[in-house]
Design goal:
Strand content: 35-45%
CATH topology: Archease, Possible Chaperone, Chain: A, domain 1
Shape: globular
Structural class: alpha+beta
Number of helices: 2
CATH class: Alpha Beta
Largest sheet: 5 strands, antiparallel
Order of helices and strands: EEHEHEEEEE
Distance between the termini: 24 Å
Helix content: 10-25%
CATH superfamily: Archease domain
CATH architecture: 3-Layer(bab) Sandwich
Number of strands: 8
């Protein structure tokens, strides 16, 4: 898994490219990259609480979009920093179905040095694609 940030994209945005050998690994990498825009040290987040995330969409792009939006929702509504693990993606009829477990804890600025306040995932240049080397996503976040 890897990610690359693009600071020149826009002053009010943060952009990254996430990669993974599988679709599930890509989703974990993109979730971590999104969280890393918000908090400086991902390892500072302890597994105090868990949330199950379920989503169904007609495309992989919208499935990832919704997962990342869920992380932002939990940060805003419940002050939770959540890391995604145990991702399962299946195809059911015309839809892709995601079930994931996220673990984390409430934001504590003394232990979680904060970077930027991510407001939303944007559709600008948003993409998910399978490559020869695995899966790749390009994401722009509104900060």
């Amino acid at each position: 898994m890897s990610d690359t940030y693009f600071e020149e994209e826009a002053a009010a945005d943060a952009a990254f490219r996430a990669r993974g050998p599988t679709r599930e690994a890509l989703f974990v990498a993109a979730a971590d990259a999104t969280l890393n825009v918000m908090v400086e040290d991902l390892e500072s987040i302890q597994a105090v609480t868990t949330r199950n995330i379920h989503a169904e969409e007609s495309t992989c792009e919208m499935l990832l979009f919704n997962l990342l939006q869920e992380l932002i929702y939990y940060k805003d509504a419940q002050y939770l920093l959540l890391r995604v693990s145990n991702v399962s993606i299946t195809e059911q009829g015309d839809n892709y179905v995601l079930d994931a477990e996220a673990y984390g804890e409430e934001i504590d600025p003394t232990r979680h040095p904060l970077n930027a306040d991510v407001k939303a995932v944007t559709m600008y240049r948003f993409s998910v694609a399978e490559r020869d080397s695995g899966w790749e996503a390009y994401v722009v976040l509104d900060i």
